[in-house]
Specification:
heterodimer, A: mainly beta, Immunoglobulin-like, four-stranded antiparallel sheet, 2 helices, globular, B: alpha+beta, Cytochrome Bc1 Complex, Chain D, domain 2, 2 domains, 14-stranded mixed sheet, 12 helices, 24% helix
């Protein structure tokens, strides 16, 4: 009888400690917000002439490899913490790459490692989903119009470029992450990473054409650390 | 008793034959001995293209398109697994059949043990082991399969199947391979190494992997890793079979066989009188052999075959080469022009060295005929003045006079003292304005080592004619060699021989050419 009581007490104690430490950890986090901006002359968005499947793809596309807003914000840059561990948040629905009008959307997608990613073909014509990856096995799958949806899983954290060999202008970047401290910039160049452990943190900023840089950020518990990151053409 | 004995003998015979059969099919397991053998054959037959360390950086690699495979990165194209990783059998099949559409020839003439030795050796060069997952059946929609792709039984190709095949082809293949299969869909594509590539013209019969139905089934389902050709797992089951049947219907067996590099026997029959002209009726006494050619830098417009006949009269041997060429490119005077040419290469030993121009220490003897040299002999020497009239005007032109009235430079003539005409004086056969033969007798020990044999040993005669969009070129030489490094053509022997053809208007010159692998020239007694 007494043995049972002791057992119960121990369980309760462990539970209490874990709850306490968790709330402590939550207290000891801050947020990193900021903008990724372009320095130098703002480039004109490139136009791509479409020569194939025009009834579905249209006549012209605007390249998405470098999208800079008039106020210099860079879209589709990815900001992430370096050297951290953690479980990425499980999305409620599978992250989805949509092929519509012969464009992959979104152009940059963040997906947790090991989680399935839906690949949707809304065009009703052949696309092929061709990954260029080092850590994950290379996938190159035909997705004819009748194959509306495929699901693939990426187990290793890595930035993967995905192309369609049938339509050379199509590309998407899948950022597979093994921690939750990551965000992509919106059209204004803004991003927000919440629940960042307090202390000196190192962030890495990646952009598909402007490359990669790192920056030190001091994160204080319960506060918002504001950073502005400048990227330019090399 | 007698009956028992014969029964026993029959059983023994059966045992023996089945034993032999399984030995033919079952691959020998890898061993240190086989690896050593593989390394030795690799050094002899593979190094020139794939490089000593297997990094696709051999001496000949720059001449080749598509590029040779890198055995260290080990990203193989022809796979039969859901994992898109090559099995031992895949590698063995590729070595055996070669890769039409590239300069990888067939090595099917090597004994099976040697080919397996090569499989094990090149696998040992890979930086990451080639692992194939345990067998797992794919789901209903074809996804999630692992291990070898199990090919289901072949359904009949009836009207309904054909309708389905056409539908699938239109939806899944036509985007790249074109509506009619001519490879005229998406053109700007690159492979995993960044080299430009194009969808295959399915009507040409060129299949990198074997076009046999089972292999083709797997290549359609698995795709071709490293190339834009994707996996089509959704076709697993009947649909892939319908596509196999349709794709095969776009080309013929003849076309498909013609692109495989094969070894043939060329009988040199004995005749009373040797032909003295490429169109002589005597050639009819010899059987013609169609040899398969491959361009080293692959292109679709290429000579596919060269037809060869050989005869001898006990003193001299004559070989006739016939091949198609739409243009008679017989001058190469302008920098942008290249001439048509043909060459025969002989091994000096029964066991030939590497088929592309031999190797250091193992010279080959090459007879090379050039259309321009032929044109030089009849009716006049091809000189720059022929293409650029009045090129030789050396003085400041007198504009009051016509071009032909201008004073000319003191050009070299046959009366010039050749001591002061460097190449001619040095005995270079290429510089000799009095050449009697359109053929050069050469010697080589690997790439970049081609050299003329001594002038006094130049004994090969040749004559080439062009007509009806094809060349007929005959070569003649005495059976006995003259000088060192000349091939001995003894009656009753088999001499390894290979052929090459250049198409000038396609920019062929030097290493840019179409070649055969070693063939057997069987000189009758």
């Amino acid at each position: 009888m007494s043995r049972w009581l002791v057992g119960l007490l121990v369980v309760a104690l462990i539970y209490g400690v874990s709850v306490f430490s968790r709330s402590l950890a939550a207290d000891a986090t801050g947020t990193i917000t900021g903008r990724v901006v372009f320095t130098g002359e703002i480039p004109q968005a490139k136009k791509i002439k479409i020569t194939k499947d025009q009834e579905k793809c249209g006549q012209e596309k605007t390249a998405e490899d470098l999208v800079v807003a008039p106020d210099r914000g860079i879209k589709n840059a990815v900001v992430s913490l370096v050297g951290v561990k953690g479980t990425p948040a499980k999305p409620e629905t599978y992250p989805t790459i949509d092929q519509k009008g012969c464009t992959f959307s979104p152009h940059v997608l963040i997906a947790p490692a090991g989680a399935p990613v839906d690949i949707v073909n809304d065009d009703g014509i052949l696309h092929n989903f061709h990954t260029i990856s080092a850590k994950n096995a290379v996938i190159n799958k035909a997705q004819p119009g009748f194959k509306k949806k495929m699901t693939e899983t990426f187990s290793q954290a890595e930035i993967i470029k995905i192309t369609c060999d049938a339509h050379g202008w199509m590309s998407v970047w899948l950022v597979v992450t093994d921690h939750p401290y990551i965000a992509a910039t919106d059209v204004t160049g803004a991003f927000k990473i919440a629940n960042v452990p307090a202390g000196a943190q190192k962030i890495e900023i990646w952009h598909e054409t402007l490359g990669k840089i790192t920056k030190e950020v001091a994160v204080k518990a319960g506060e918002e650390a504001k950073v502005t990151i400048e990227l330019s053409k090399k | 008793m007698k009956r028992i004995f014969s029964l026993g003998a029959a059983a023994l015979l059966l045992l023996l034959t089945t034993g032999i059969e399984t030995a033919e099919i079952k691959p020998p397991p890898s061993s240190q001995k086989l690896l050593a053998l593989g390394k030795q054959i690799y050094g002899r037959q593979c190094v020139a293209c794939h490089g000593a360390g297997g990094r696709a950086d051999g001496e000949a690699a720059y001449l080749l398109y598509p590029k040779p495979r890198d055995f260290v990165a080990a990203n193989y194209r022809l796979v039969s697994t859901w994992d898109r990783v090559a099995t031992d059998q895949d590698l063995f099949d590729t070595i055996t059949r070669g890769m039409p559409g590239s300069a990888m020839p067939s090595w099917g003439h090597l004994p099976m043990e040697q080919r397996w030795a090569l499989v094990y050796y090149i696998k040992s060069l890979a930086e990451k082991p080639l692992t194939i997952k345990a067998q797992k059946k794919p789901a209903e929609d074809g996804s999630g399969g692992e291990g070898l792709i199990q090919v289901p039984p072949e359904p009949p190709y009836d009207t309904a199947a054909k309708t389905r095949a056409l539908e699938l082809y239109k939806d899944a293949c036509a985007s790249c391979h074109g509506a009619s299969g001519r490879g005229d869909g998406t053109q700007d594509q690159v492979d995993a190494e960044g080299y430009p590539t194009r969808p295959r013209n399915l009507t040409s019969g060129v299949f990198k992997g074997s076009p046999d139905p089972t292999s083709l089934y797997r290549h359609i389902v698995a795709g071709i890793p490293g190339s834009p050709m994707p996996m089509s797992d959704w076709a697993y089951g009947q649909d892939a079979w319908h596509l196999v049947h349709y794709v095969r219907s776009l080309s013929s067996d003849t076309q498909r066989e013609r692109v495989e590099m094969k070894k043939f026997a060329i009988p040199a029959v004995r005749v009373k009188t040797l032909p003295d002209h490429p169109e002589s009726g005597i050639w009819r006494l010899a059987s013609s052999v169609n040899l398969h050619l491959m361009p080293l830098w692959w292109r679709s417009n290429r000579p596919e075959e060269v037809t060869v006949r050989a005869v001898h009269d006990g003193k001299e041997l004559a070989i006739l080469m016939v091949w198609q060429d739409d243009t008679n490119d017989h001058t190469a005077l302008r920098p942008q022009d290249f001439r048509d040419a043909a060459a025969i290469q002989f091994s000096l030993t029964a066991n030939p060295p590497f088929f592309a121009m031999g190797t250091t220490g193992a010279p080959v003897n090459i007879w090379m005929w050039k259309s321009e040299r032929q044109a030089d002999l009849e009716p006049a020497f091809q000189e720059l003045e022929k293409i650029y009239p009045n090129l030789g005007i050396d003085s400041y032109p007198n504009l009051t006079r016509s071009a032909v009235e201008q004073s000319h430079r003191n050009a070299l003539t046959l009366e010039s003292d050749k001591t002061f005409v460097t190449g001619w004086g040095a005995g270079n056969i290429v510089s000799d304005p009095q050449r009697k033969s359109p053929v050069e007798d050469l010697s080589a020990q690997g790439f970049g080592t081609l050299q003329a044999r001594p002038r006094i040993d130049q004994r090969v005669d040749a004559r080439g004619v062009y007509g009806a969009a094809s060349y007929r070129v005959m070569f003649r030489r005495s059976l006995k060699p003259a000088g060192k490094d000349a091939v001995v053509l003894a009656p009753g022997t088999t001499v390894p021989v290979a052929f090459a053809v250049w198409n000038g208007s396609a920019g062929d010159r030097d290493g840019k050419k179409s070649v055969t692998i070693w063939q057997d020239l069987k000189i009758a007694k």
